[in-house]
Amino acid sequence: MACSSSGKFPWNLLGWATLSALLAIGSGILRRTEAVPQSLAWLVAILPVAPMVGYFFGVERWMRQLDEMQRMIQLEALLIQFGVTAILVMGYGTLARAGAVPDLPISRSWHWLWFALFWSWLLGQGIVRRKYR
Amino acid sequence: MTNRLRVLRAERAWSQAELADRLKVSRQTVNAIETGKYDPSLPLAFAIARVFQQPIEEIFHPDGANHA
After folding, report:
1. How close, in Å, is residue B52 to chain A by CA atoms?
2. Considering chain B, what percentage of its residues have pLDDT values greater than 70?
3. Do B25 and A5 touch (CB under 8 A)?
4. N or C: which end of chain A has fewer CB within 10 A?
5. Prediction ipTM score
């Protein structure tokens, strides 16, 4: 049986996310000060994305370490996360088209997607964990 | 599905955490199985049977089944 005990908070994921956030701040500062030559601007811009690769491998490794019920909880939470985020994004998009809310370009609004993903995941955790408590 | 996990565990004076350790699952999983909120997979049910040294059918019963 390939399950083990679990439930421990995956701190490495927080590390990857923090690194990404710090790089996003640093990248923003470098862009504003124009300290980087134009030919390397794309590299500086993409720096915050690199730690997310580590983040997703970390999530995958963490999920594999969970026992079967914990894994099911995470999958159900991810389903809620996906549903809530999709509804939010679609809802905002249609409202923006109708002119009810500001039409934000993706280059200025992508970080809100992470915000929605995080809080909807937390919401999913709360709902699903309650079910199995 | 109902089960006798809590009774069998009590007979051995094991805590949920101790049983979880033996089964290599989390304490929450043991609790959810005991309270009937989660039905274990077949491999986990076999592991439980092995830990308690009893056949699976002596531990797990389908809903409505007549058992002692």
Report:
1. 17
2. 93
3. yes
4. C
5. 0.85
